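just leaving the lab so this will be short. what follows is a protein written twice so to speak, once as letters and once as C-alpha coordinates for the fold. can you read through it and tell me how you think this chain folds. thanks a lot i owe you, the record is right below.

___
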Amino acid sequence: MGARGRVVVVGSLNVDSTSYVEEFPGPGETVLSHGFRVALGGKGSNQAVAAQVAGAAVEFVARIGSDAAGDFAIATLERFGLPTSAIVRGADAPTGVAQITVADSGENTIIVTGGANLELTAVVVEAERDRFAAADLVLTQGELPVPAIDRAAAIARDTGVGFVLNLAPPAAVSRDTLSTADPLVVNEHEARAVGIGSDAANPSLEEWRELAASAVGAVSRSVVVTLGATGAVAASVDGSWAVNPPRVTAVDTTGAGDAFTGTLAAFLAEGRSLEEALRIAVAAGALAVQARGTVDSYATREAVLHAAGVADTTTATAEGGE
Protein backbone atom coordinates (compact mmCIF):
# COMPACT_ATOMS: atom_id res chain seq x y z
CA MET A 1 0.00 0.00 0.00
CA GLY A 2 1.47 3.35 -1.05
CA ALA A 3 1.44 6.64 0.81
CA ARG A 4 -0.77 9.62 0.09
CA GLY A 5 0.70 12.39 -2.07
CA ARG A 6 2.09 15.79 -1.17
CA VAL A 7 0.34 18.73 -2.89
CA VAL A 8 1.35 22.40 -2.85
CA VAL A 9 -1.55 24.66 -3.76
CA VAL A 10 -0.63 28.19 -4.83
CA GLY A 11 -3.89 30.02 -5.00
CA SER A 12 -6.53 32.52 -4.13
CA LEU A 13 -8.31 32.75 -0.81
CA ASN A 14 -11.59 34.60 -0.51
CA VAL A 15 -14.44 34.88 1.94
CA ASP A 16 -17.75 34.23 0.18
CA SER A 17 -20.92 36.18 0.88
CA THR A 18 -23.76 34.16 -0.65
CA SER A 19 -27.40 35.12 -1.15
CA TYR A 20 -29.99 32.49 -2.06
CA VAL A 21 -32.80 33.59 -4.38
CA GLU A 22 -35.68 32.04 -6.27
CA GLU A 23 -34.42 33.41 -9.59
CA PHE A 24 -31.56 35.69 -10.63
CA PRO A 25 -32.52 39.37 -10.98
CA GLY A 26 -32.56 40.88 -14.43
CA PRO A 27 -30.79 44.18 -15.25
CA GLY A 28 -32.16 46.91 -12.99
CA GLU A 29 -34.28 44.43 -10.99
CA THR A 30 -34.21 43.95 -7.20
CA VAL A 31 -35.12 40.60 -5.68
CA LEU A 32 -35.28 39.44 -2.06
CA SER A 33 -33.13 36.56 -0.86
CA HIS A 34 -34.46 33.75 1.29
CA GLY A 35 -31.10 32.89 2.80
CA PHE A 36 -27.60 34.24 3.38
CA ARG A 37 -24.31 32.80 4.55
CA VAL A 38 -20.64 33.73 4.89
CA ALA A 39 -18.14 30.97 4.15
CA LEU A 40 -14.59 30.28 3.05
CA GLY A 41 -14.08 30.53 -0.70
CA GLY A 42 -11.61 31.25 -3.47
CA LYS A 43 -10.50 28.58 -5.90
CA GLY A 44 -7.17 28.14 -4.16
CA SER A 45 -8.60 27.57 -0.69
CA ASN A 46 -11.47 25.45 -1.99
CA GLN A 47 -9.11 23.19 -3.91
CA ALA A 48 -6.65 23.01 -1.02
CA VAL A 49 -9.43 21.85 1.31
CA ALA A 50 -10.73 19.38 -1.29
CA ALA A 51 -7.26 17.87 -1.67
CA GLN A 52 -6.86 17.71 2.12
CA VAL A 53 -10.24 16.03 2.58
CA ALA A 54 -9.27 13.58 -0.17
CA GLY A 55 -6.28 12.54 1.92
CA ALA A 56 -3.34 14.48 0.47
CA ALA A 57 -0.73 16.23 2.60
CA VAL A 58 -1.43 19.82 1.52
CA GLU A 59 0.54 23.05 1.87
CA PHE A 60 -1.34 26.18 0.84
CA VAL A 61 0.57 29.27 -0.34
CA ALA A 62 -1.72 32.31 -0.18
CA ARG A 63 -2.04 35.95 0.86
CA ILE A 64 -4.79 37.46 3.04
CA GLY A 65 -5.45 40.72 4.87
CA SER A 66 -5.08 41.55 8.55
CA ASP A 67 -8.83 41.77 8.96
CA ALA A 68 -11.77 39.85 10.41
CA ALA A 69 -12.27 38.03 7.11
CA GLY A 70 -8.69 36.80 7.35
CA ASP A 71 -9.31 35.58 10.92
CA PHE A 72 -12.36 33.70 9.69
CA ALA A 73 -10.41 32.11 6.82
CA ILE A 74 -7.56 30.89 9.03
CA ALA A 75 -9.99 29.42 11.56
CA THR A 76 -11.87 27.59 8.83
CA LEU A 77 -8.75 26.11 7.26
CA GLU A 78 -7.50 24.95 10.66
CA ARG A 79 -10.86 23.28 11.28
CA PHE A 80 -10.12 21.09 8.26
CA GLY A 81 -6.64 20.35 9.56
CA LEU A 82 -4.94 22.24 6.76
CA PRO A 83 -1.57 23.82 7.65
CA THR A 84 -1.59 27.63 7.42
CA SER A 85 2.13 28.40 7.83
CA ALA A 86 2.51 29.37 4.14
CA ILE A 87 -0.37 31.89 4.30
CA VAL A 88 0.99 35.42 4.86
CA ARG A 89 -1.15 38.24 6.26
CA GLY A 90 -0.53 41.79 5.03
CA ALA A 91 -1.78 45.21 6.12
CA ASP A 92 -2.00 46.85 2.70
CA ALA A 93 -4.98 44.99 1.18
CA PRO A 94 -8.11 43.29 2.51
CA THR A 95 -8.77 39.59 2.27
CA GLY A 96 -10.30 38.73 -1.11
CA VAL A 97 -14.08 38.48 -1.29
CA ALA A 98 -16.62 36.83 -3.57
CA GLN A 99 -20.22 37.95 -3.89
CA ILE A 100 -22.32 34.96 -4.89
CA THR A 101 -25.96 34.54 -5.81
CA VAL A 102 -27.46 31.03 -5.90
CA ALA A 103 -30.82 30.46 -7.59
CA ASP A 104 -33.24 27.72 -6.53
CA SER A 105 -32.24 25.87 -9.71
CA GLY A 106 -28.80 25.34 -8.14
CA GLU A 107 -27.02 27.61 -10.63
CA ASN A 108 -24.91 30.53 -9.42
CA THR A 109 -23.33 33.86 -10.36
CA ILE A 110 -20.05 35.00 -8.80
CA ILE A 111 -18.23 38.35 -8.62
CA VAL A 112 -14.68 38.20 -7.20
CA THR A 113 -12.64 41.08 -5.74
CA GLY A 114 -9.01 39.97 -5.54
CA GLY A 115 -7.77 42.06 -2.60
CA ALA A 116 -4.68 40.50 -1.00
CA ASN A 117 -4.66 37.72 -3.59
CA LEU A 118 -3.12 40.22 -6.00
CA GLU A 119 -0.06 40.40 -3.72
CA LEU A 120 0.80 36.80 -4.60
CA THR A 121 3.41 37.84 -7.17
CA ALA A 122 6.05 35.99 -9.18
CA VAL A 123 8.63 37.00 -6.55
CA VAL A 124 6.50 35.41 -3.82
CA VAL A 125 6.17 32.22 -5.85
CA GLU A 126 9.91 32.08 -6.56
CA ALA A 127 10.55 32.13 -2.80
CA GLU A 128 8.59 28.85 -2.56
CA ARG A 129 10.97 26.91 -4.82
CA ASP A 130 12.11 24.54 -2.05
CA ARG A 131 8.50 23.85 -1.05
CA PHE A 132 7.71 22.97 -4.67
CA ALA A 133 10.71 20.66 -4.94
CA ALA A 134 9.56 18.63 -1.92
CA ALA A 135 6.05 18.09 -3.34
CA ASP A 136 4.60 15.47 -5.68
CA LEU A 137 2.42 18.00 -7.43
CA VAL A 138 1.79 21.76 -7.62
CA LEU A 139 -1.71 23.08 -8.27
CA THR A 140 -2.72 26.63 -9.19
CA GLN A 141 -5.64 28.50 -10.79
CA GLY A 142 -6.49 31.42 -13.04
CA GLU A 143 -7.52 33.74 -10.18
CA LEU A 144 -3.89 34.71 -9.53
CA PRO A 145 -1.82 37.35 -11.33
CA VAL A 146 -0.52 35.86 -14.60
CA PRO A 147 3.20 36.33 -13.73
CA ALA A 148 2.66 34.25 -10.57
CA ILE A 149 1.01 31.44 -12.57
CA ASP A 150 3.80 31.49 -15.15
CA ARG A 151 6.44 31.40 -12.41
CA ALA A 152 4.77 28.45 -10.68
CA ALA A 153 4.78 26.52 -13.96
CA ALA A 154 8.45 27.35 -14.58
CA ILE A 155 9.52 26.21 -11.11
CA ALA A 156 7.53 22.99 -11.39
CA ARG A 157 9.16 22.35 -14.76
CA ASP A 158 12.65 23.12 -13.40
CA THR A 159 12.22 20.87 -10.37
CA GLY A 160 10.50 18.00 -12.18
CA VAL A 161 7.32 18.28 -10.10
CA GLY A 162 3.88 17.63 -11.58
CA PHE A 163 1.96 20.80 -12.45
CA VAL A 164 -1.84 21.01 -12.59
CA LEU A 165 -3.34 24.23 -13.91
CA ASN A 166 -7.03 25.00 -13.46
CA LEU A 167 -7.33 27.92 -15.87
CA ALA A 168 -10.44 29.33 -14.22
CA PRO A 169 -11.15 32.04 -15.02
CA PRO A 170 -9.27 32.10 -18.35
CA ALA A 171 -6.02 34.05 -18.05
CA ALA A 172 -3.43 35.04 -20.64
CA VAL A 173 -0.72 32.68 -19.39
CA SER A 174 2.28 31.87 -21.56
CA ARG A 175 2.39 29.01 -24.03
CA ASP A 176 5.15 27.46 -21.91
CA THR A 177 2.80 27.44 -18.92
CA LEU A 178 0.05 25.76 -20.91
CA SER A 179 2.45 23.18 -22.32
CA THR A 180 3.69 22.35 -18.81
CA ALA A 181 0.19 21.67 -17.44
CA ASP A 182 -0.30 17.97 -16.78
CA PRO A 183 -3.23 18.21 -16.82
CA LEU A 184 -4.78 21.50 -17.85
CA VAL A 185 -8.22 21.52 -16.17
CA VAL A 186 -10.91 23.67 -17.81
CA ASN A 187 -14.67 23.78 -18.23
CA GLU A 188 -16.22 24.00 -21.69
CA HIS A 189 -16.07 27.83 -21.81
CA GLU A 190 -12.45 27.92 -20.61
CA ALA A 191 -11.58 25.15 -23.07
CA ARG A 192 -12.78 27.26 -25.97
CA ALA A 193 -10.75 30.22 -24.63
CA VAL A 194 -7.53 28.21 -25.11
CA GLY A 195 -8.54 26.84 -28.49
CA ILE A 196 -10.14 23.53 -27.47
CA GLY A 197 -13.64 23.38 -28.94
CA SER A 198 -15.75 22.91 -32.01
CA ASP A 199 -18.38 24.72 -34.05
CA ALA A 200 -21.10 22.52 -32.55
CA ALA A 201 -23.44 24.37 -30.18
CA ASN A 202 -23.54 21.54 -27.64
CA PRO A 203 -20.89 18.89 -28.24
CA SER A 204 -21.64 15.50 -26.73
CA LEU A 205 -19.50 13.91 -24.02
CA GLU A 206 -17.92 11.71 -26.68
CA GLU A 207 -17.18 14.72 -28.89
CA TRP A 208 -15.52 16.50 -25.96
CA ARG A 209 -13.41 13.38 -25.35
CA GLU A 210 -12.18 13.59 -28.94
CA LEU A 211 -11.53 17.33 -28.62
CA ALA A 212 -9.50 16.78 -25.45
CA ALA A 213 -7.48 14.08 -27.17
CA SER A 214 -6.69 16.41 -30.07
CA ALA A 215 -5.31 19.01 -27.63
CA VAL A 216 -2.78 16.67 -26.00
CA GLY A 217 0.67 17.90 -27.00
CA ALA A 218 -0.80 20.77 -28.98
CA VAL A 219 -2.07 22.75 -25.97
CA SER A 220 -0.85 20.93 -22.87
CA ARG A 221 0.64 17.60 -21.80
CA SER A 222 -2.78 16.31 -20.79
CA VAL A 223 -6.26 17.81 -20.71
CA VAL A 224 -9.34 17.55 -18.49
CA VAL A 225 -12.62 19.21 -19.46
CA THR A 226 -15.41 19.41 -16.89
CA LEU A 227 -18.97 19.49 -18.22
CA GLY A 228 -21.15 20.00 -15.16
CA ALA A 229 -24.01 17.55 -14.83
CA THR A 230 -22.87 15.78 -18.01
CA GLY A 231 -19.60 14.61 -16.43
CA ALA A 232 -16.02 15.15 -17.54
CA VAL A 233 -13.46 13.97 -20.09
CA ALA A 234 -9.70 13.59 -19.96
CA ALA A 235 -6.92 12.79 -22.40
CA SER A 236 -3.20 12.13 -22.27
CA VAL A 237 -0.64 10.30 -24.40
CA ASP A 238 -1.96 7.10 -22.80
CA GLY A 239 -5.54 7.50 -24.07
CA SER A 240 -8.76 9.43 -23.57
CA TRP A 241 -11.75 8.86 -21.30
CA ALA A 242 -15.27 10.13 -20.65
CA VAL A 243 -17.02 9.72 -17.30
CA ASN A 244 -20.68 10.28 -16.43
CA PRO A 245 -21.38 11.46 -12.86
CA PRO A 246 -23.48 9.59 -10.31
CA ARG A 247 -27.13 10.67 -10.32
CA VAL A 248 -27.69 13.34 -7.63
CA THR A 249 -30.07 16.21 -6.88
CA ALA A 250 -28.31 19.58 -7.20
CA VAL A 251 -28.85 22.00 -4.33
CA ASP A 252 -25.90 24.35 -4.87
CA THR A 253 -23.22 24.02 -7.56
CA THR A 254 -20.90 26.60 -5.96
CA GLY A 255 -17.45 25.10 -5.43
CA ALA A 256 -18.25 21.78 -7.10
CA GLY A 257 -15.65 22.39 -9.80
CA ASP A 258 -13.08 23.06 -7.08
CA ALA A 259 -14.05 19.82 -5.32
CA PHE A 260 -13.38 18.08 -8.62
CA THR A 261 -10.01 19.76 -9.22
CA GLY A 262 -8.65 19.42 -5.68
CA THR A 263 -9.66 15.77 -5.58
CA LEU A 264 -8.13 15.12 -9.00
CA ALA A 265 -4.84 16.66 -7.84
CA ALA A 266 -4.82 14.64 -4.61
CA PHE A 267 -5.24 11.32 -6.37
CA LEU A 268 -2.76 12.16 -9.14
CA ALA A 269 -0.24 13.07 -6.42
CA GLU A 270 -0.57 9.64 -4.83
CA GLY A 271 0.20 7.97 -8.13
CA ARG A 272 -3.24 7.14 -9.56
CA SER A 273 -3.61 7.18 -13.33
CA LEU A 274 -5.39 10.09 -14.98
CA GLU A 275 -8.24 7.74 -15.92
CA GLU A 276 -8.78 6.62 -12.32
CA ALA A 277 -8.28 10.10 -10.85
CA LEU A 278 -10.88 11.41 -13.30
CA ARG A 279 -13.49 8.89 -12.14
CA ILE A 280 -12.86 9.76 -8.51
CA ALA A 281 -12.93 13.52 -9.16
CA VAL A 282 -16.23 13.29 -11.06
CA ALA A 283 -17.75 11.55 -8.03
CA ALA A 284 -16.38 14.24 -5.69
CA GLY A 285 -17.85 17.03 -7.81
CA ALA A 286 -21.23 15.33 -7.97
CA LEU A 287 -21.42 14.74 -4.22
CA ALA A 288 -20.50 18.38 -3.54
CA VAL A 289 -23.64 19.79 -5.22
CA GLN A 290 -25.97 18.07 -2.75
CA ALA A 291 -25.43 20.63 0.03
CA ARG A 292 -25.14 24.39 0.27
CA GLY A 293 -21.83 26.15 0.42
CA THR A 294 -18.34 25.28 -0.75
CA VAL A 295 -15.86 23.47 1.48
CA ASP A 296 -18.48 22.26 3.95
CA SER A 297 -20.20 20.38 1.12
CA TYR A 298 -17.12 18.30 0.26
CA ALA A 299 -17.57 14.59 0.91
CA THR A 300 -15.05 12.42 2.74
CA ARG A 301 -12.44 10.35 0.94
CA GLU A 302 -14.31 7.19 1.87
CA ALA A 303 -17.62 8.49 0.50
CA VAL A 304 -16.05 9.72 -2.73
CA LEU A 305 -14.21 6.46 -3.40
CA HIS A 306 -17.40 4.50 -2.71
CA ALA A 307 -19.39 6.69 -5.13
CA ALA A 308 -16.68 6.22 -7.77
CA GLY A 309 -16.51 2.47 -7.23
CA VAL A 310 -12.75 2.66 -6.60
CA ALA A 311 -10.80 0.86 -3.86
CA ASP A 312 -8.59 2.71 -1.37
CA THR A 313 -5.13 1.28 -1.93
CA THR A 314 -3.02 3.71 0.08
CA THR A 315 -2.16 4.54 3.65
CA ALA A 316 -2.23 8.05 5.13
CA THR A 317 1.08 9.81 5.72
CA ALA A 318 1.88 11.45 9.04
CA GLU A 319 1.51 14.89 7.45
CA GLY A 320 -1.74 14.19 5.61
CA GLY A 321 -3.19 11.43 7.77
CA GLU A 322 -6.80 10.93 8.65
About this structure: The first strand starts at residue 2 and ends at 3. The mean pLDDT is 91. The two ends are 16 Å apart (CA to CA).
